[in-house]
Specification:
- By secondary structure, this protein is of the alpha/beta class.
- The protein folds into 2 domains: 175 residues, 3-Layer(aba) Sandwich (Rossmann fold), CATH 3.40.50.2000; 170 residues, Rossmann fold, CATH 3.40.50.
- 43% of the residues lie in helices and 15% in strands.
- The chain is built from 13 helices and 13 strands.
- The strands form 2 sheets. It has a 7-stranded parallel beta sheet with strand order 3-2-1-4-5-6-7, with helices on both faces. Strands 10-9-8-11-12-13 form a 6-stranded parallel beta sheet, sandwiched between helices.
- β4, α3 and β5 form a beta-alpha-beta unit.
- The relative contact order is 0.12.
Length: 363
C-alpha cells in the first residue's frame, strides 16, 4: 500500500546509463512510495512510459571541465538549479532523495542535504563518478553494484552498501523467458550504442562486417544507428548481400535482445549489466573519452569475470574481424561465456534497496 506521507525524489543524469537504473528503482518503489524523477532535458526521451506528472526537469550543468568558459557557465547553472531544487524540496517535502549520478543529480542532492533530507547515492560504474564523489560526504549510504568499486576513500567505507545492478523489470522478465536463441546455430549480432557510439560504429563496423562475410562468416546483423546513417548503411549492406536489420534509437531493446546471441557494444555499466543478466555474450569496445576512463574499467571487470571480449578502438578493424571469425568457427566460446553469466543475477537488487530505505525512514 502506498504511503501518503512518504515521497521520494530520484535525481538522475539524463543519459540512458543513468535513466534506466532510475526507472528500475522508481517502478519498483512506486507501489509503496510517491516517486518523482528529477533529471535534465536529455532524460525526457527515455521517460515516455513514466507518469509525466511525476517528472521534473532541472537545467543543470557540469563544473568538471578543463575549459574555463564551460566551468563558469556550469557554475551559474548549478547555482540556479540549486535554488530551483530548494523550491521543489520545500514545496513537496520528500522523505528521502536518491542520487543516481550525473551532474543533474548534484543540485537536488546538495539542496536536500542543506534541508536535512536523508541522501542515498547509487553508483553502477567500477569507479565512483565525479558528482557522486562530491555528494558522498553528505550521503547516508552509497549503493554500489560491485564490491570491486574504486575511488571511495577508506573513511567512507562504512557508507558502502552492496546492492548489485539495477535492471529494469521487463529485462529481468525477459531473462526468465529467453529461449529463442539458446539452440540457434547461426550468429545473430546486435550492434548497440547511444547516439555518439551509434555514429562511430556506423562509420567503422560495416567494412569489418563485410570483410567477415566475404571470408565465410555466417551471421545476421541488428545494428543501431542514427536516422541519417540508415540509408547509407543499408546500401552498403545490400550491395554486399549481408543479412541485416537497421534501427535507430530505441528505449526498449527487448525485441533485439530476444534475437541476439552476441553483442558489440560500448561499456556503460547499465548496458553491460543487462547483457550479463540476459546471458548475451558481448564484445566490449570502451569509449576512449569516457570520464575517468570508467568504460575501460567496466569492460576490464566483466572481461576478468569471463563474460566478454574487450577491444581497444584503436585496433578495432583487425581484432574484431579475428574475434568474429574465431567465434564462427567455434561457437562453444559463446556457450562457455553463457555458463559463467548464468551464475550472475541481479534479481534481488531492488528488494535490498527497498529494505535499506525502510530502515532509514524508520530511524
Amino acid at each position: 500500500m502506498k504511503s501518503n506521507n512518504k515521497k521520494i525524489f530520484i535525481a538522475t543524469g539524463g543519459t540512458g546509463g543513468h535513466i534506466f537504473p532510475s526507472l528500475s528503482l522508481a517502478e519498483f518503489l512506486k507501489e509503496k512510495y510517491q516517486i518523482e524523477i528529477i533529471t535534465d532535458k536529455r532524460g525526457i526521451r527515455y521517460l515516455n512510459n513514466f507518469e509525466q506528472n511525476n517528472i521534473r526537469i532541472i537545467d543543470s550543468g557540469t563544473i568538471f571541465s578543463k575549459n574555463i568558459i564551460v566551468i563558469f557557465n556550469g557554475f551559474i547553472k548549478v547555482i540556479f538549479s540549486f535554488l530551483v531544487s530548494l523550491f521543489f524540496i520545500i514545496k513537496d517535502r520528500p522523505k528521502l532523495i536518491i542520487g543516481m549520478g550525473g551532474y543533474s543529480s548534484f543540485p537536488i542532492c546538495v539542496a536536500g542535504f542543506c534541508l536535512k533530507i536523508p541522501i542515498l547515492i547509487y553508483e553502477n560504474n567500477l569507479i565512483i563518478g565525479r558528482a557522486n564523489k562530491f555528494i558522498l560526504p553528505m550521503a547516508k549510504k552509497v549503493l554500489v553494484s560491485t564490491k570491486d568499486i574504486k575511488g571511495i576513500s577508506p573513511k567512507y567505507s562504512k557508507k558502502i552498501f552492496y546492492s548489485g545492478y539495477l535492471i529494469r523489470s521487463h529485462i529481468l522478465r525477459l531473462k526468465q523467458n529467453k529461449t529463442e536463441n539458446e539452440k540457434n546455430e547461426s550468429l545473430s549480432i546486435l550492434i548497440m550504442g547511444g547516439s555518439q557510439s551509434a555514429k562511430v560504429f556506423g562509420e567503422i563496423l560495416p567494412e569489418i562486417m563485410i570483410k567477415c562475410f566475404k571470408n565465410g562468416a555466417k551471421f545476421r546483423i541488428y545494428q543501431q544507428c542514427l536516422e541519417n546513417q540508415i540509408n547509407e548503411i543499408k546500401k552498403i549492406y545490400e550491395k554486399n548481400k549481408l543479412d541485416f536489420e537497421l534501427f535507430s534509437f530505441a528505449d526498449d531493446m527487448t525485441k533485439y535482445y530476444k534475437k541476439a546471441n552476441l553483442a558489440i557494444t560500448r561499456s556503460g555499466a547499465s548496458s553491460l549489466a543487462e547483457l550479463v543478466n540476459l546471458k548475451i555474450p558481448f564484445i566490449a569496445i570502451p569509449l576512449p573519452s569516457s570520464a575517468d576512463n570508467h568504460q575501460l574499467k567496466n569492460a576490464s571487470y566483466f572481461m576478468e569475470k569471463g563474460y566478454c571480449f574487450m577491444l581497444d578502438q584503436r585496433f578495432l578493424s583487425d581484432k574484431l574481424f579475428q574475434i568474429i571469425m574465431d567465434i564462427g568457427k567455434d561457437k562453444k566460446k559463446l556457450s562457455l561465456i553463457k555458463e559463467k553469466m548464468a551464475k550472475h543475477s541481479d534479481m534481488d537488487t531492488n528488494p535490498k534497496i527497498e529494505q535499506l530505505i525502510e530502515k532509514i525512514l524508520n530511524e
